[in-house]
Design goal:
By secondary structure, this protein is α/β, with parallel strands linked by helices. The protein contains seven helices and 16 strands. A six-stranded mixed sheet has the order 5-4-3-2-1-16, covered by helices on one side. The chain has a six-stranded mixed sheet with strand order 8-9-10-11-14-15, covered by helices on one side. It has a two-stranded antiparallel ribbon with strand order 6-7. A hairpin with a 5-residue loop joins strand 4 and strand 5. Helix 1 packs parallel to helix 3. It is globular, with a radius of gyration of 19 Å. About 45% of the residues are buried.
C-alpha cells in the first residue's frame, strides 16, 4: 500500500430520471475533487430511484450506451479522480436488471463491476415493503479491485447485513470496503451506524459508505448519514441528512495496525454446525 489519500462520499436525492439526478451528482463530484478527494464514491441507485418495475424496464439499458455510465466516465476523465458509480441499474436480461457498482479509473475506464448479491425483500413495520428480487437479478460473485493505495472490496447496501461476505473480501486482500446505499429511514436509525462500524472492526478495513438522503419522487425516504469508518471502528466523517459530500483522509497503514492489535482474520477454525431445532423440540425445551 502507498501513502495517504482523500476519499469523498457524495450524498444525493435521486429522482426518477437520470438527467436531472446526474446534473446534481456531477456538481457534487466536481466539488469533491476541488476539496482534494482522490477517490470519489456515490450512493446506490445514484442516477435513478424508480419504484415501478415497468418503468425501470422501460428506462434501463445495458452498459453500452447507458446514459449515467457515460456521464460518470466523462466525469472521471474531467476530474482525474478514481470514481465509484455507487450503483447503476443495468439491463442484463429482457425482464431483469442488475444493481451494479462500477469502479472507474481517472481515464474513465471500467476497472471492476460488482452486482449486488443480497436482495432486499423485506416488509417493514411502518408498512413499507420491498421486493428487489422481482426486478433485479442477484450477483453471484464477490469482487476486489486494485486502487493506487491498496485493495478495494465492493458491496452494495443490504449486503452489509451478511458479515461473511466482508470477511471473505478482507481475506482476499481488501483494505477498503465500499457500501453505497439507499437505506430506509426506520432501519437506518436502528442499524446503519452500528452495522458499518461492526464491518470495519471485524475486518480491520476502512468502510466507505456513500448514501442517498431525503424524500424521493414516489415518496420513498432515505436515511443519509454517509459514513467513513476507520479499521478500529472510529467514525471519521458523517454526512448527516443534507445533500452534499464529505471528505476524509485515509491512512492505509491503519489497516495493518488494526489487524496487528486483533489478528482475528487468521484465527478461523473449522467446526460442526449445530443440528436445527425443529418445532417439536422447541416445544419440549419450553416445557409445553
Amino acid at each position: 500500500m502507498s501513502g495517504t489519500f482523500k476519499v469523498a462520499c457524495v450524498q444525493n436525492t435521486a429522482g426518477r430520471d437520470v438527467g436531472p439526478s446526474m446534473k446534481i451528482v456531477a456538481d457534487l463530484v466536481r466539488r469533491s475533487r476541488d476539496a482534494g478527494a482522490d477517490f470519489i464514491t456515490t450512493p446506490e441507485c445514484v442516477a435513478m430511484m424508480e419504484s415501478s418495475r415497468r418503468a425501470v424496464l422501460e428506462k434501463v439499458t445495458g452498459e453500452e450506451g447507458h446514459e449515467a455510465l457515460e456521464a460518470f466516465q466523462a466525469l472521471a476523465r474531467e476530474t482525474g479522480a478514481w470514481l465509484l458509480a455507487g450503483s447503476l441499474t443495468v439491463r442484463v436480461e429482457p425482464e431483469r436488471v442488475a444493481n451494479r457498482s462500477i469502479l472507474l479509473n481517472p481515464q474513465g475506464n471500467v476497472v471492476a463491476r460488482y452486482d449486488k448479491i443480497h436482495m432486499f425483500d423485506v416488509d417493514l413495520d411502518d408498512g413499507e415493503s420491498y421486493r428487489e428480487s422481482r426486478t433485479y437479478r442477484p450477483g453471484d460473485r464477490a469482487v476486489v479491485a486494485e486502487l493506487p493505495w491498496g485493495v478495494l472490496g465492493m458491496t452494495v447496501c443490504y449486503d452489509m447485513r451478511f458479515p461473511y461476505l466482508y470477511r471473505d473480501l478482507a481475506k482476499a486482500g481488501a483494505d477498503f470496503l465500499t457500501v453505497p446505499s439507499a437505506f430506509t429511514r426506520p432501519t437506518g436509525r436502528a442499524h446503519w451506524h452500528v452495522l458499518l462500524r461492526a464491518r470495519a472492526i471485524e475486518t480491520g478495513c476502512f468502510v466507505i459508505a456513500p448514501a442517498q438522503t431525503g424524500e424521493h419522487e414516489g415518496g420513498r425516504k432515505t436515511y443519509g448519514h454517509s459514513l467513513v469508518v476507520a479499521p478500529w471502528g472510529e467514525i471519521l466523517a458523517d454526512g448527516g441528512e443534507d445533500v452534499g459530500f464529505i471528505v476524509s483522509e485515509i491512512d492505509p497503514a491503519q489497516v495493518a495496525e488494526a489487524r496487528r492489535k486483533v489478528p482475528s482474520l487468521g484465527h478461523d477454525r473449522q467446526y460442526a454446525a449445530p443440528d436445527p431445532i425443529v418445532a417439536d423440540r422447541r416445544q419440549a425445551l419450553a416445557g409445553e
